[in-house]
Amino acid sequence: MHLLEVSNPVAQQRGMINIFKPNPRPSSLDGKTIGLIWSGTHGGDLALNRAGEMIQERFSNVSVNFYTGGNYPTPPAVVKQAAKECDLVIGATAD
Amino acid sequence: MCHDMIEVEKMGKPAVPIVSGRFEDDALASSRTFGMPDLQFVIVPRIYRNLADDLCVSQTEDAIDDLIASLTSDGTQAAQSDNDESTLRFEGEDRYDAVLKMNREFTVRDWSDALPILPPTREAVEKLIEGTNLDANDIVCDMPPGFGIATVEQIAINSAMAGAKPEHMPIIIAAVKCLSVTGGHGGKSMLMSTSPQAPMLVVNGPIAKKVGLNGGSALGPGRENEINITIGRAFYLCLKNIGMWYPHKMDMDTIGTTRKFVPCLAENEDASPWASYASDRGFSDDRSAVSIFTTNGELDVQDQGNTSAEGLLKTLAYGITFGNRSVGHLQSQERLIFMPPDVALPVAAEGWSKEDAKNFIFEHAYGSLGKFIQFMPAKDARVEEEWQWIRGKTEQELLDTTIPLLASPDKIDIVVVGADRAKTLVFPTGPSPETIGIDQYLP
To answer: Start and end of every UGSC-like domain (chain A) (predicted)?
Structure first.
């Protein structure tokens, strides 16, 4: 019998050293402001706008703000603005 | 988009991306890459980009319950690590059998290129580390697209799998470093593209000859390209297992390309009438450097009888005029020309500098705007401000409008490569190439 010992080629990812947990969710979307961030790719705007409409139909006093930087990744200033102005954010890249 | 949603989460607000089904593994991998492995996301079956409008809406409607649930309830996912073993052990009837078992396991885990690899034993790895002045634990960079930590040891492990020699290590290390400074976020968007973008390594300077890199018929298989193939393969394995460039996770290519078996070659400096490519980038001839181009296709532009500079360069200018011309926020809009000596020498013999040749090619590489932009409808939100006038034009007007293929002559790079035939190889490229010195990593 022969025992072969080899090193693992897979590196540690920088992102897995300091892990962030997602924020707690509200129990309802009533009265919330929802941000929609679009990458600019065909169809993503249709998806986000429809999602915003349906959330407004199901919950009361929901506001919807639409954001796009015209590309992905979204410019940091646009992401920051959405996070500042909205309670929750939905994004779509279209792929 | 996972990146953007994680940025929102880090600012204290819940955020959810809508992800197309084929991109589920990509979303999981991206979540790990950007430090939030428990990011919640919603899956829809089809990619929006190529769907009719009514289908974009209907598949979103079908996912609305999942979307609302992910906005109103905390997720239950738990971050898992599937890679805790620093050493792997394989038992076989003899060493050959153990190596076969290791190869099977590495292929199953998608840690190789599916060709046989050599075992990265402790001895093999330590020998490679002797090929550089760096220590095993020195960090070269965080390697895109997944930002794995590229220690010298980790680079050596993957290089050992490719059969690299210690003298190759400074080139491989420099190439890994070079990728991390190429394009935005180390070319992350390009590497994760659904198009076949792939890195190409070009080596200049004394080290190329010293290790035996070929600058002649440099891109094919076979004995004369053994070193080209070995160094390119080592870099590819680093990109895969350090950069996490795994298919369907962080390499989202639609069809793929053999250029992802990363090509590496030397410029044919002995046969070139001009200063080397690295010299153009500020490196003197006694210094070695590696450049990374991000290629997105290739085309043979052959000349069957022109001998004058203008004749040869017109063939090239017309030959490189193919494909798309971006009017939006897309980076793939340059041309890399591997010019063989039988084109470069007669051009230079008439007194043309490399810059003269680039200017001439640029000035003669024109085409139909309508054909160039057919791939991206004028209404696309990514059309840049300076091009928004196209929205008022008819299809015929756009077809009848001619424009330069490239934005400027500096979007053309010329590297002299090849044997004695007038067969040029052209690559659409972008983002712009980067060059890194190799000597800093010599032992």
So the answer is: 8-95
